Q: What sequence folds into this?
């Protein structure tokens, strides 16, 4: 994500590399590259202009920092300005003093509004809240059924009256949430293919009737430049309180993320990063800035890892590795842990320098994991515990190969790779502490 933008920005700092400080002259050219990169990334022109001015001022006013190259310093300045434009910190979802908190979802047809209702409901439930969804998109065929299906999938109730008056649906939906003691009620609303008066009037009526605590504009990141106009139109009529930027997992350019806050003064609260209901992340301006600049996103990575991995599990695994008790069963566990962390692809892309990894390479890695898992599944418990059994016996290896639908040499490679890895761990664990014991154990 944001590959196009970060690649272009790299050019800007390359031009500053090797120079010893930021000056009026050399900044000129770097700024031109930044400007071009942002425009190419479909950032709105007004937003770009203001941004460039702010970066120029900050850069020229900055002190020379010892030991820091001008290109690094410039990256930092651009990073900080990006963070500023996108709103400094994450702004959490509102919470009404008397429940239910009413969230109105607005947006164009196809922006991902209905899907995002379900994602948000699931997110809130994971926070220990009790949400209700209200099917109010009477305009797009099948939207109501779609929400009901999603509701069943995540086991969160959906209120629906069929295709009647959207204001009535919203009113009764909120009432139902109140009666059922829900903390949150999420109102799906009708979108249109483009901004139109009827849609706005309808949303205004819904707003006036239920007085939502949050009006979230759902924006498809792929619309780029258009995000500025869209945000402005909705904000003028409805007074949005925030936005959710969807489809950031695809081959999108960064433009929309920069425009929304600039234009409306309201924060992006979440980002959609996939079609699955789990694919919703809180929006963090500093992390997004790092991503745009191709600095990787270590923070998200660490957080995701913490959330998905049972830390106790990970600690005992580390200990096992160090004491060489690590066997194929542990290896399998470890692979499943990696899987649980979401698609390997998504995670790898978050790591610095990995942004350019190709789909092909990712697929290969994932296929390799799947193959290893199949082979391990065909091993007996003793073989998993004691991989040397396999190393010594061709007939055992052949049995595993046949059982898992692989070739003999695939199994041999897995076993020898595993042994090599285990030896390495053993050496690391024992190194220094117990000299002379390196050769022991089996
Ligand atoms: P609505 O008309 O605004 O209600 O749009 P939908 O919720 O039906 O979404 C339109 C399409 O976008 C569907 O195919 C969704 O699966 C897809 N979609 C929604 N959010 C995301 C996202 O974050 N990433 C990706 N890749 N697809 C998404």
A:
């Amino acid at each position: 994500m944001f590959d196009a933008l970060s690649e272009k920005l790299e050019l800007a700092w390359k031009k500053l590399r090797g120079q010893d400080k930021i000056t009026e002259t050399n900044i000129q050219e770097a700024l031109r590259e930044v400007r071009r990169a942002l425009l190419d990334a479909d950032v709105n022109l007004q937003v770009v202009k203001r941004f460039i001015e702010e970066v120029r001022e900050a850069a020229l006013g900055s002190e020379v920092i010892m030991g820091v190259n001008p290109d690094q310093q410039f990256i930092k300045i651009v990073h900080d300005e990006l963070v500023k434009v996108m709103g400094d910190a994450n702004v959490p979802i509102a919470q009404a003093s008397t429940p239910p908190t009413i969230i109105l979802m607005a947006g164009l047809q196809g922006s991902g509004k209905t899907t995002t209702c379900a994602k948000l409901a699931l997110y809130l439930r994971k926070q220990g809240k009790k949400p209700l969804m209200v099917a109010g998109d009477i305009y797009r065929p099948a939207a109501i059924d779609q929400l009901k299906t999603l509701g069943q999938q995540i086991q969160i109730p959906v209120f629906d009256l069929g295709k009647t008056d959207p204001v009535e649906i919203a009113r009764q939906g909120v009432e139902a949430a109140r009666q059922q003691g829900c903390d949150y009620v999420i109102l799906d609303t009708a979108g249109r293919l483009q901004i139109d008066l009827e849609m706005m009037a309808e949303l205004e009526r819904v707003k006036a009737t239920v007085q939502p605590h949050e009006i979230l504009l759902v924006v498809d990141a792929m619309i780029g430049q258009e995000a500025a106009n869209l945000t402005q139109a909705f904000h003028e009529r409805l007074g949005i309180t925030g936005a959710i930027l969807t489809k950031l997992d695809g081959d999108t350019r960064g433009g929309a993320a920069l425009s929304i806050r600039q234009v409306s003064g309201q924060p992006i609260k979440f980002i959609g990063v996939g079609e699955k209901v789990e694919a919703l992340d809180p929006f963090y301006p500093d992390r997004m800035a790092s991503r745009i600049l191709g600095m990787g996103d270590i923070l998200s990575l660490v957080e995701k890892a913490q959330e998905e991995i049972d830390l106790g599990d990970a600690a005992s695994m580390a200990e096992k590795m160090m004491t060489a008790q690590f066997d194929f069963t542990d290896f399998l566990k470890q692979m499943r842990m990696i899987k649980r962390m979401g698609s390997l692809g998504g995670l790898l892309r978050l790591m610095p320098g990995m942004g350019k990894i190709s789909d092909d390479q990712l697929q290969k890695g994932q296929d390799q994991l799947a193959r290893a898992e199949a082979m391990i599944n065909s091993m007996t418990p003793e073989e998993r515990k004691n991989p040397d059994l396999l190393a010594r016996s061709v007939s055992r290896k052949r049995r595993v190969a046949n059982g898992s639908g692989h070739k003999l040499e695939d199994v041999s490679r897995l076993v020898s790779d595993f042994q090599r890895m285990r030896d390495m761990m053993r050496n690391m664990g024992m190194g220094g502490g117990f000299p002379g014991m390196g050769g022991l154990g089996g």
The two ends are 46 Å apart (CA to CA). The domain at 305-430 is CATH 1.10.260.30 (434 Repressor (Amino-terminal Domain)). The mean pLDDT is 82. The chain is about 60% helix and 10% strand.
